[in-house]
């Protein structure tokens, strides 16, 4: 099972909001909805989030 808990912790540490991701970095609201629901996102999306947040994959997802 994949957990996105690290994603929200990273957002908080980096002082980012979902609003900023959507309106300043063109991350789709649907992507954030999928993350909230624990649904699958693509590795391309994970790569994009890592670039935006200047972090590593483990800062976005956790395999449980």
TrEMBL record:
For this protein, the record's Pfam families field holds:
HTH_26
Domain (HTH cro/C1-type) ranges: 26-60
Instruction: Return the InterPro entries for the record.
Output: Cro/C1-type_HTH (IPR001387), Lambda_DNA-bd_dom_sf (IPR010982)
Q: Which domain of life is it from?
A: Bacteria
Q: Return the protein name.
A: Helix-turn-helix domain-containing protein
């Amino acid at each position: 099972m994949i957990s996105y808990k690290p994603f929200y912790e990273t957002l908080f540490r980096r002082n980012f909001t979902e609003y900023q991701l959507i309106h300043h970095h063109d991350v789709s609201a649907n992507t954030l909805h999928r993350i909230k629901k624990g649904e699958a996102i693509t590795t391309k999306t994970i790569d994009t989030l890592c670039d935006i947040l200047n972090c590593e994959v483990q800062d976005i997802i956790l395999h449980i």
